[in-house]
Design brief:
The protein folds into two domains: about 1-120 and about 220-275, Periplasmic binding protein-like II (D-Maltodextrin-Binding Protein, domain 2, 3-Layer(aba) Sandwich); about 125-220, Periplasmic binding protein-like II (D-Maltodextrin-Binding Protein, domain 2). It is an alpha/beta fold. About 40% of the residues lie in helices and about 25% in strands. The chain has helices at about 1-15, 20-25, 55-70, 85-90, 105-110, 150-160, 175-185, 195-205, 230-245, 250-260, 265-275, and strands at about 30-35, 45, 50, 75-80, 95-100, 115-130, 145, 170, 190-195, 210, 220-225. The longest helix has 17 residues, at about 55-70.
C-alpha cells in the first residue's frame, strides 16, 4: 500500500511529458494541417505548396519546436483539411497543429486546445455593387449564403435574430461555392470573415464587382488549433509565437500576406503587444 501511495505521489509531482512533443521527437516529423481556399490565411499554390499568413506562422512554430527539441532535421508534413473535418483531425491527432482561420470559442475548446491569438477579424457580408444593401438590416427578405457549422453561421443567425431581420440563411460548403451563387444571383450576400472575403474576391472574382458591408456583425479571434490535454506542447507553440510577436517579426509576416489591406488595426496591434510574453 505504501509503495502504491509513493508511486501515485510521484506521478502527481511529475506530470507525464508531452505526448505530442515526444512523438515529434521520435518521428522527426511535425504534421501541420491547412485548409485550401482560405486566402490570404491558407491555400495551396499552383505547385500544391501551402501558402498564407497562418501557414507562415506555423512554419515559424515548427522552427521553434525544432530548436526546443534540438532537432535540426525536423521535417514538416502538410496535411490538407477541410472546414468540416479540421477539428476532428486535431482531436483525433491526425495533425499536430491546424494552421488556418479557426475562431477560439469555449464550445470548440471542449474538443481541442488553442494557441495564443494569431489574428482578430470580424464577420461581414459580401454583395454585388448594384445591390442596395449597405448594412445587415437591409437584408430583410433577402438570401445570405454562409458556410454551415462555422462560428460565422452562429453569429449571423444571432445577429439576424437580434435585429428581427427576416433573411433566409443558405448553407454552403465553401466560399467559392458561395461566390458562384452570388454571381448567379441565387443569393444576395455571402457571409464570412471580412479578410477571408477580401481574399476570395482577389483570387476568384476577376471581372466581377463586389463590395463589403459597412459594418461587421461579429468579432472572430483566430488561433492555431492544438490537441487537448497537452500543456507542454501548447507552451512550446506559444513560446514560438510570443517570440515572433516580441521581436516585431510578426509585422513582416503580416505585410507579406495582408499588407495590401493596410496596416494592422489598433486591436490587432494591441493583440500582438499583449501577447509578447517574456521567457
Amino acid at each position: 500500500m505504501r509503495s502504491l501511495l509513493l508511486i501515485l505521489a510521484t506521478l502527481l509531482a511529475f506530470p507525464a511529458a508531452s505526448q505530442t512533443l515526444d512523438n515529434i521527437r521520435k518521428q522527426g516529423v511535425i504534421r501541420l494541417g491547412y485548409v485550401d481556399g482560405a486566402a490570404p490565411f491558407s491555400w495551396a499554390d499552383a505547385n500544391g505548396e501551402p501558402q498564407g499568413y497562418s501557414v507562415d506562422l506555423c512554419r515559424v512554430v515548427a522552427d521553434g519546436i525544432a530548436e526546443q527539441l534540438k532537432r535540426k532535421e525536423l521535417k514538416v508534413r502538410w496535411v490538407k483539411l477541410t472546414l468540416q473535418n479540421r477539428i476532428d483531425a486535431v482531436r483525433k491527432k491526425q495533425v499536430d497543429i491546424e494552421c488556418g482561420t479557426a475562431t477560439w470559442t469555449f464550445s470548440r475548446q471542449r474538443l481541442v486546445d488553442f494557441s495564443l491569438i494569431t489574428f482578430v477579424d470580424g464577420g461581414s457580408i459580401l454583395t454585388r455593387v448594384q445591390t442596395d444593401a449597405r448594412r445587415i438590416g437591409d437584408f430583410g427578405g433577402k438570401r445570405i449564403a454562409v458556410i454551415g457549422g462555422t462560428t460565422t453561421e452562429s453569429a449571423l443567425r444571432d445577429s439576424l435574430k437580434r435585429g428581427l431581420i427576416a433573411a433566409e440563411v443558405v448553407l454552403i460548403k465553401g466560399r467559392d461555392e458561395g461566390l458562384e451563387l452570388l454571381r448567379q444571383g441565387q443569393v444576395d450576400g455571402l457571409a464570412s470573415d471580412r479578410t477571408a472575403l477580401i481574399g476570395v474576391v482577389v483570387t476568384r472574382a476577376a471581372g466581377d464587382a463586389f463590395r463589403l458591408l459597412e459594418e461587421d456583425f461579429s468579432i472572430e479571434q483566430y488561433a492555431l488549433m492544438l490537441p487537448r490535454n497537452d500543456a507542454d506542447f501548447r507552451i512550446a507553440v506559444n513560446r514560438a509565437l510570443a517570440r515572433l510577436y516580441r521581436s516585431g517579426e510578426i509585422r513582416r509576416v503580416y505585410d507579406r500576406w495582408l499588407g495590401p489591406l493596410g496596416p494592422p488595426s489598433v486591436l490587432l496591434s494591441a493583440t500582438y503587444f499583449i501577447q509578447s510574453l517574456a521567457e
